[in-house]
Write the C-alpha cells for this entry.
Amino acid sequence: MAIRSPLYYNSGNLQEMTPAMVTEIVEQAVYQYSINPSVSLSVVASSGNLDAMSDTRLQAGGQSTSVSSFPSEATTAEPSVITVSYDKISETRTAVTPTADTGLLWPIYYDSDTVRSMNLQDVKDTFLHPAIDMLTSGSLTTQQAGTYHINTATSVTGSSQVSGTAVFSNTEANTSAYTAGAIPETLDQPQTLANYYLHRIDGTNTAYTSPIFVNGLSNLQEYSQATLNTLLQEWLRYTAVSSSDGYSLSYNIGATGNGNTRGSGMADTRLNGSGSYQTRQVNTDDYRAQEFPNGTSTTINTYYLRIHKS
C-alpha cells in the first residue's frame, strides 16, 4: 500500500500536499461519483433484484353459523396470517471504461529526491479506495453522496427521494374495524403503521487544491479541475463496479447481511393474539360466530438496506 503526497504549486515552488488537502480531493471524487453513480438503486413495481421483504398481519377467521345456538369457539376458524411480499428495489451496475493510465496520467510526488508520477496503485491507495471507504460508511453525510438510505419520511434534508412509491409498508389488522354486529366481517381489514421510502444522498462540490502532473511535452503542469474531476469520476465509477481489490460496491437487504446499515430499519409487526371470539344472533334460527384479530403488536422481523464493499 502506497499513500502518496501529491505535489502542488505554492508560491512558485513544488510542495507536498498535507493529508487534509488529499482528503479534499477524495471528497471531490465522492462528489463526482454522486453526479453519476455506477451502482444505482431504483424503485420498481415488482421483481426487484434485491431480496424481498415480507409484511405479515392477522386477518379474521371465517364465520361459523348455526340454526339453533352459537357455534362454539372451538369450532370457529382462527385468525390467520396474511403475507405481502415487497421486492421493489433493484440494483443496476453500469460498466465504465475509464481513461487509460499512460504512466503520466496522474499527479506527481517526491520519491526521495526524485519526482515521479503516481501509478494506478498509488491512485487507488491515495484517492479511490479512501473514497469507497467513505461511500460505504454507515453515515449519511455528503461523504456518502450518490449512495442510498431508507427513511419513513418522504422528504429528507440532504437527500433526494428516489420514488414516491414506498419500498416497504408495515401493516397490522385494524381491530377497531371489526364489530360483532357486522358478522360476517370482511376477513382482511388492515391499517398501515409505517411506509418506508428510498432516498439518495446529495453531493456537495468541495473546493480543493489542484496537484501537478507531467504533460505530453514532459513539462510540469497544474491540472485544470475539470480534467482532474473527469478522471476522478471515471475511475471511481469504474472502481465501484469493477474493483478486484475488495472495493467493489453493492447493496443488499434483509434482516441480516454484510455491510453497513443505511437509514431506518423496516419493521414487520403483527398482533400476537389467538383470536377474539365474537357472536351475533340475527334471528331465532340464525346464530353466527367469528374470531377477530387481537393481541399486542409484536416485531416479527426488521429489514435493513446495507451497503457493502467486496
About this structure: DSSP finds three helices and 21 strands in the chain. The chain has a mean pLDDT of 97. The helical segments are 19-35, 120-135, 225-242. The radius of gyration is 29 Å.
